[in-house]
Amino acid sequence: MPRTTRSSKAVATASADSKDAKTKTKSTSSNSSIYTLAPELDSPPTIFILPKSATPESRIVTLQNPRYGKPTRYLVCPSTGFYEFTKMASPEKSPRSWLIDGTTNPHIPAQTTKDSELYVATPIDPLFLVLPALAAKITDKKRMFLSSDDHFDAVSEQDSGSGRRKNHLLEVLKWPQARKLLESRMASVCDTVEAGDEIMFRLNETKLVEELLMKAKRMSEDGLPKSMEEKFVTKALEAPIVGIRSTVALTRSSTTVTVESQEGEEMTETTTTKTSLSEATTAVATPTNEVVASLIPTPEILNLQRLRVSLNFLTSSYLPPSLSSHLKSSLSNPSDFSRKRIAGDEEDAFERAEKRRKKEEEEKVKKAGVSRGVKELAKVNTRGMMKLTSFFQKKT
């Protein structure tokens, strides 16, 4: 019996150990994954959406940002022109990710990126990329004519000391079509002179303002995007509320009168509502409020506001800060001078009209006191006739 007891305890212990071993094995297998994920890359790939018109010779290059002066990525196509990249991302409240399939490109393995950012290539006027060099000495009264190469060298040298990214403008200029496009856009805002075989350029502020206004008109003629329209046009021109006009609508219900005849027959008659206000018992007052605005903008004012928003967007996004502030000050000064000049012209015109009126009144008064005979004598031609006073001279 003791052996049996001892052996039974050993068996029980062995079975318990086996159960624990199985449990540990199951837990270990449940925690382990069938698939092994690749380590996260230090520089994950970036997703770009390129235009269909871009040729295979297109390249993503680094150029100077015209507004901030920092190296920025651009797409340059030798046939279709220059493109900037607009970043599109999901809001932080609803994060997204991209699943990249490696079947399209064998050099890129299948992977998942944490961020759902993508960059869309949109056309940009290459004039803005050269404006920092054209407007480098805009405050100088005497500006010199410079060749296109001098302006291009000034743009490329401004970023040479950053040490982060190389400016690829000189490489882009090796494409003849790209150079021709840049020079044609420079000529649209510059005064040009020919010096031998070269064309010299000098920035013209008037031409630049006209070019910016033309771009702003094209942006605003079909309306702005919905978000910009609501924020910068509708709300900006929203007039204050003068008051709330209350009206009361009276609703009357018809009454039913029951009349019993002498024979016991029941007759029902429905009477219509009377229009008299004395029947207050059958009237129900329903107040309604109507918001009364002080001013409603006209379509002309809305178009002017859209034009203003478009122009501010261009100057604050694509022009250097020094050039933007200079153009705004130069635009405001002539307008003030024109207002003063118009006011002065109006005052001078009023004074001239007042003098003319007084002179005409004096002439009317003089003519009113002259007799008819004197008027007739005034019409007689007295040329060659001696004056009457000559007959009454003293004898010598």
TrEMBL record:
GO biological process: RNA catabolic process
Database matches in InterPro entries: RNase_H2_suB, RNase_H2_suB_wHTH, Rnh202_N
Record domain Ribonuclease H2 subunit B wHTH: where: 128-328
Protein name stated in the entry: Ribonuclease H2 subunit B
Region (Disordered): 1-37, 255-282, 348-372
Species whose genome carries this gene: Sordaria macrospora (strain ATCC MYA-333 / DSM 997 / K(L3346) / K-hell)
Domain of life where this protein originates: Eukaryota
Major subcellular location class: nucleus
Any one of the GO CC terms: nucleoplasm
